[in-house]
User: Which sequence fits this backbone?
């Protein structure tokens, strides 16, 4: 149960970093929307889970936040990628691609390849 | 790095909790507002738009929980809450908490006090000296007779030959007669090498210290450094004390400086007041040959390791140097090697006697603390069972096992730390009391112990360990609790009481071990102090004089003693009078002298040594030691008789195989004596010791400038002789003080002092422990009985008599107690057989202690049982 959440959190964190990398500073809602558009139903039910992830990234220094004004002229918290964050993103992207490639090969492997 | 950053940020949030909550709330509102606006654009009604937005966001409270867990420091926040809760819980049970805290405080206080002494010896063997723990002892070691000390010339040689030790320092303790004629006062000081103060790194409180060149040539610099206390009491702290003259052993010395406040010399716990250059020895001690004589080994050496040197290097250098000295000076140094030792390894002197006693004491007191812990665990367990329902509710509401454990732990830790705090306060009081009341004996003793940060840490550590120990049983019990069970059953179901009974057994067992140890110790102390000394101390007055200040010769010493004895014997109340160089049963022991005796050939290498005392005729009469053969010594002024010696029975048995000793020749290093008599064995070093060979020499043959006057009274009131004796001495020499006047009984009493401290501790703590065990048993039984009210009611209603009920309750509990006592008894038996393999087993202790323990335990069971049996059955059944 807990492990699943951890995996989710890890994935979410990566998505947040990528989103901020591509789109620049965004508030929480904007990030949630963007992830929703791309990932489908990952955040469809629980957009709220995003905020603990944002906090964790901020504590780690991967992102920074400051108050700004949203589209409908309200006070909103804007998050942006820090330099450490973009380094982390690069590293994790590489990791992720490697892992994905390995897992992919495993799944494609037939019984006779392994024997 | 990342985790550190996160921790710091979390710490920050921990402080700014409230503002962060506000920020999150705003963010959530904004998020939902934006989503609502989006939904409105998609064409939903305002109400539906907001509802959808909320749904999409998910559980706000769960998210907030996650968020807070992520943000703050749950590891700190939870315990903080627990401690607040614990404080509330404890304040609701003041009586129980008081018993627990006070009993822990006593246990921890006693242990901390003892630890502060041990700590002093380990880490701060010289108060006011910063790097004291870095100093090492340099002890010459003789193959045959232990550690004799170093001579001055040896010190000078070693100084050059052990480069690994920076600043080798020499000191020798000496008693001085200070003051003007007729009103001199005996004060203890040290003769020191010139580098003494600089090597110790001390700064004078006033004036300056002895310079190295002031201890180069004999008798050149009549200077003296005084202690801070001496400055305060004798000079009233006057700044012009420096430069004033102080009359010491009838010589004027100039006060050049005052030592720092807490400095008391290098032989803690002895306290010295004066420091004089060692080169003043011949001038002050009447031509003593300490500075030239290599066999006069009065100095103690200490030195600090140089920056890059190791103890092994120093030891190697010392071994080589001592071997060289043994070759160069075979008379004085043959067979003498050397050892580098830490202060706590001190092989002789007051430190040695202290250390061995303290280690045993600490062990026993830790056992006592363990028994207190057992007691507390039991009380907490008993109380814990009444809280089963509370815990069950907590578990049912979702508290994890660890939360329950940490709840219990924090309650107990709070109790334990309160106990440790109070215990530390006890220790402060105890060490202060010991510091303020210096022990007056032949030597001034002062324990310079303080409760410092280190000792406090020890107290807290003990407290925490105790807390952990007595938390474990209740925590285990609660963790295993099934909430459904606990909620279903009322508080009146009989609890599973196995754990409590086992604990009760363990506690009683520990108590019996400690009590038996205490009783054995007290008994050995009592039997030692009541053992027959084989001389008669009652009715004897002791007083010392010291001629060493006035350049005496053998002839003048002998004549002085002879005149003194004549005058004393002419006093009407004096039955017999004598002078001796040593008094038996002295803390510092009696010297042993090497000898050879006609008719005995030593087969092993080395020398035979026997206790030696130099006495005047009449000594055996004063001491009431019968002469079994031969006669007393010749009169003091007898010039015809050859040098004489008297030996004791053990000497004859061991060295002459019981052959007739009279007339045989006995040879010491310098002189030859004829054995003229045999005295009965008596105690020399300690009361109740095994017989030791001893030689008495005659004062006539070996006059000394120091002497202990022994007076036996005719009237039975020996103390009344004091003023007459003083008057006699003043008549003979107005400059000479009569010091250390005491009755022989007081002398024995004083020298048992160091053994009496632990004896007193046991005398107080033994009954206390018994009381604690009783309280523990009482509490456990009354809790158990209270929970069985209904059962007892049923029994009574069915016709059981109350005495039957009482008997049954006692029988149930006494089982565990008996087991505990039996195991503790066996343990104590094993320990005692191990520690004193040949000693007689004390029946009164090994039967008496368990009997008392069982009697007290039975009483502690009986009280609550009787109360329970008196209830009205109807009321009991209606209960709940």
Assistant:
């Amino acid at each position: 149960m807990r492990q699943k959440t951890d995996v989710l959190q890890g994935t979410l964190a990566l998505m947040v970093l990528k989103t901020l990398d591509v789109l620049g500073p965004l508030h929480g809602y904007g990030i949630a929307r963007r992830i929703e558009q791309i990932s489908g139903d990952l955040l469809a039910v629980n957009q709220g889970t995003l905020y603990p992830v944002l906090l964790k990234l901020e504590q780690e220094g991967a992102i920074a936040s400051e108050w700004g004004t949203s589209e409908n002229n309200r006070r909103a918290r804007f998050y942006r990628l820090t330099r450490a964050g973009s380094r982390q993103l690069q590293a994790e992207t590489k990791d992720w691609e490697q892992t994905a490639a390995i897992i992919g090969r495993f799944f494609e492997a037939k019984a006779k390849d392994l024997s | 790095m990342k985790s550190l950053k996160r921790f710091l940020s979390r710490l920050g949030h921990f402080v700014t909790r409230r503002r962060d909550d506000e920020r999150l709330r705003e963010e959530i509102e904004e998020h939902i507002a934006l989503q609502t606006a989006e939904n409105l654009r998609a064409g939903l009604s305002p109400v539906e738009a907001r509802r959808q937005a909320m749904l999409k966001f998910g559980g706000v409270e769960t998210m907030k929980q996650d968020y807070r867990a992520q943000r703050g420091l749950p590891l700190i926040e939870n315990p903080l809450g627990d401690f607040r809760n614990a404080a509330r819980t404890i304040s609701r049970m003041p009586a129980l908490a008081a018993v627990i805290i006070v009993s822990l405080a006593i246990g921890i206080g006693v242990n901390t006090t003892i630890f502060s002494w041990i700590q002093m010896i380990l880490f701060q063997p010289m108060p006011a000296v910063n790097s004291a723990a870095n100093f090492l002892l340099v002890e010459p070691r003789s193959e045959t007779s232990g550690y004799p000390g170093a001579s001055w010339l040896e010190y000078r040689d070693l100084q050059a030959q052990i480069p690994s030790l920076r600043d080798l320092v020499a000191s020798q303790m000496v008693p001085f007669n200070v003051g003007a004629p007729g009103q001199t006062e005996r004060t203890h000081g040290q003769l020191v090498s010139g580098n003494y103060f600089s090597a110790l790194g001390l700064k004078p409180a006033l004036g300056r210290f002895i310079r190295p060149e002031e201890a180069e040539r004999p008798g050149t610099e009549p200077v003296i450094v005084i202690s801070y206390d001496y400055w305060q009491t004798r000079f009233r702290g006057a700044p012009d004390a420096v430069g004033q003259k102080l009359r010491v052993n009838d010589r004027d010395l100039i006060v050049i400086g005052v030592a720092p406040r807490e400095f008391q010399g290098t032989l803690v716990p002895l306290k010295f007041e004066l420091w004089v250059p060692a080169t003043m020895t011949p001038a002050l001690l009447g031509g003593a040959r300490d500075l030239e004589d290599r066999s006069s080994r009065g100095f103690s050496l200490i030195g600090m390791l140089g920056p890059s040197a190791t103890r092994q290097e120093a030891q190697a250098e010392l071994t080589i140097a001592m071997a060289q000295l043994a070759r160069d000076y075979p008379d004085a140094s043959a067979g003498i090697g050397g050892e580098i030792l830490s202060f706590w390894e001190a092989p002789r002197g007051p430190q040695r006697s202290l250390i061995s006693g303290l280690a045993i004491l600490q062990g026993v007191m830790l056992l006592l603390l363990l028994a207190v812990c057992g007691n507390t665990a039991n009380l907490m367990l008993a109380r814990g069972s009444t809280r089963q329902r509370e815990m069950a509710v907590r578990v049912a509401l979702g508290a994890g096992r660890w939360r329950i454990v940490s709840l219990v732990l924090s309650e107990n830790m709070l109790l334990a730390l309160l106990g440790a705090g109070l215990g530390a306060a006890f220790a402060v009081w105890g060490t202060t009391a010991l510091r303020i009341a210096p022990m007056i004996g032949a030597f001034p003793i002062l324990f310079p112990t303080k409760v410092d940060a280190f000792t406090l840490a020890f107290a807290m550590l003990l407290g925490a360990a105790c807390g952990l120990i007595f938390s474990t049983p209740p925590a285990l019990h609660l963790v295993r609790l099934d909430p459904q069970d606990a909620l279903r059953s009322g508080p009146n179901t009989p609890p599973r009481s196995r754990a409590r009974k086992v604990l009760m057994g363990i506690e009683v067992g520990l108590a019996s071990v400690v009590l038996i140890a205490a009783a054995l110790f007290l008994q050995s102390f009592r039997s030692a102090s009541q053992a027959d000394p084989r001389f008669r101390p009652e009715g004897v007055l002791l007083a010392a004089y010291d001629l060493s200040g006035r350049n005496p010769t053998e002839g003048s010493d002998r004549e002085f003693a002879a005149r003194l004895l004549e005058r004393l014997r002419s006093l009407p109340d004096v039955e017999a009078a004598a002078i001796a160089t040593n008094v038996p049963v002295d803390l510092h022991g009696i010297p042993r002298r090497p000898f050879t005796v006609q008719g005995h050939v030593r087969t092993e290498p080395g020398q035979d040594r026997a206790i030696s005392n130099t006495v005047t005729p009449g000594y055996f009469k004063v001491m009431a030691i019968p002469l079994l053969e031969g006669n007393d010594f010749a009169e003091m002024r007898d010039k015809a008789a050859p040098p004489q010696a008297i030996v004791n029975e053990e000497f004859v048995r061991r060295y002459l195989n019981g052959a007739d000793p009279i007339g045989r020749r006995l040879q010491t290093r310098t002189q030859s004596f004829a054995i003229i008599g045999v005295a009965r064995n008596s105690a020399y070093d300690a009361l109740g010791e095994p017989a030791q060979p001893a030689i008495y020499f005659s004062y006539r043959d070996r006059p000394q400038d120091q002497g202990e006057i022994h007076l036996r009274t005719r009237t039975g009131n020996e103390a009344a002789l004091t003023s007459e004796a003083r008057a006699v001495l003043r008549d003979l020499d107005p400059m000479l003080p009569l010091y250390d006047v005491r009755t022989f009984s007081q002398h024995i009493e004083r020298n048992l002092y160091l053994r009496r401290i632990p004896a007193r501790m046991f005398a107080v703590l033994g009954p206390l422990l018994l009381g604690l065990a009783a309280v523990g048993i009482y509490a456990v039984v009354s809790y158990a009985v209270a929970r069985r009210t209904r059962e007892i009611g049923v029994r009574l209603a069915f016709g059981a008599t109350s005495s039957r009920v009482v008997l049954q309750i006692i029988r149930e509990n006494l089982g565990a107690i008996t087991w505990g006592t039996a195991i503790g008894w066996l343990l104590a038996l094993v320990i005692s057989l191990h520690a004193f393999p040949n000693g007689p087993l004390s029946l009164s202790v090994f039967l008496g202690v368990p009997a008392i323990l069982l009697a007290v335990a039975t009483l502690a069971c009986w009280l609550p049982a009787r109360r329970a049996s008196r209830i009205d059955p109807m009321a009991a059944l209606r209960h709940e």
